[in-house]
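Below is how a single chain appears once it has passed through the pipeline. First comes the sequence as given, then the structure the pipeline wrote out for it. We keep one example in the README because the format questions we get most often are answered faster by looking than by reading.
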Amino acid sequence: MPGSLAIRAGGRELVAQDMLQASVAAGRSGPVITLSGETDLVSVAELSALISAQLAGGTVELTIDASGLRFADSASIRALMLAARTLRERGGCLVLLHPQRPVAKMLTLMGADQMFTVRGEAPGGPEAEPSTR
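Resulting structure:
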């Protein structure tokens, strides 16, 4: 199954869907990372590596399109906060686009929305379906 991870446990196959999917494209002021699915302890290393690869090139502004990201745990938000700090030390910034409600709530709870620019809501706005986590 694309976008899923099968794990055998006790003779049964458990399927974890909604894994993190990411892509990078060139934007007007720097790289744009587009995220979809969910990111948590299982995928935070992948997220951190992706962000670090963009920062390694001396990036000053990094944009992350989170419109397709349905869930981000505290470890994932911390990865964004560390990137924002690095960019701020370079005189730049991190811009997060269109987070869905569960992600926006985690940003606010952790104070991350004060560390970088958050623009817009994900399509569907406040009535968007809540995460199943």
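Residues 85 and 115 are 8 Å apart (CA to CA).

See the next section for the split statistics.
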